[in-house]
């Protein structure tokens, strides 16, 4: 059974940092391209960053230079280091297959950026 479990969200002030984690089970993680997505209230879910099985990365323009995606295949985990957070980064963050989103969605982790 495929399962994605996101964690690491919370309330942070503008300019602060958070590190999100997503641990996968039931898939061959080492061969899986992975992505981070987010959905803000009243908005569609959008892709934030992606990392291929080989370690190549891509970022949405809105987070480029502030967010870093990485992976640890030994732990079946993908990370999202978020720095210089802005109020517009407030959203529920999810992980899934990068671009094709074919895995079952997890519960997500809430990130709130507010003073």
Could you explain the architecture of this structure?
- This protein is mainly β and 115 residues long.
- 0% of the residues lie in helices and 48% in strands.
- It contains no helices and ten strands.
- Strands 2-10-9-4-5-6 form a six-stranded mixed beta sheet, with no helix packed on it.
- The N and C termini lie far apart (40 Å).
- The model has no long low-confidence stretch (mean pLDDT 96).
Structure keywords:
single chain; 115 residues; six-stranded mixed β-sheet; four-stranded antiparallel β-sheet; 0% helix
Share of helix, binned: under 10%
Rounded to an integer in angstroms, the radius of gyration calculated over CA atoms is 13 Å
Q: Helical segment tally?
A: 0
Sheet-strand content, in percent, reads over 45%
Overall strand count? 10
Order of helices and strands: EEEEEEEEEE
Structural class of the helices, strands and pairings?
mainly beta
Q: What is the 3D form?
A: globular
Tell me about the largest β-sheet: 6 strands, mixed
Average pLDDT, to the nearest integer?
Answer: 96
Low-confidence stretches: none
Write the layout of secondary structure elements.
Layout: E1 3-7, E2 10-12, E3 18-25, E4 34-39, E5 46-51, E6 57-59, E7 67-72, E8 77-82, E9 91-97, E10 109-113
Parallel strand pairs: 2-10
Antiparallel strand pairs: 1-3, 3-8, 4-5, 4-9, 5-6, 7-8, 9-10
């Amino acid at each position: 059974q495929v399962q994605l479990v996101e964690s690491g969200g919370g309330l942070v002030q503008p300019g602060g940092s958070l590190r999100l984690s997503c641990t996968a089970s039931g898939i061959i993680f080492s061969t899986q391209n992975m992505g981070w997505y987010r959905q803000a209230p009243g908005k569609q879910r959008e892709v934030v960053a992606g990392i291929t099985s080989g370690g190549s990365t891509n970022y949405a323009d809105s987070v480029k230079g502030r967010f870093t995606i990485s992976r640890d295949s030994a732990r079946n985990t993908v990370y999202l280091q978020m720095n210089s957070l802005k109020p517009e980064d407030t959203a529920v963050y999810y992980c899934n297959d990068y671009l094709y989103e074919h895995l079952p969605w997890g519960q997500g982790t809430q990130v709130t950026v507010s003073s």
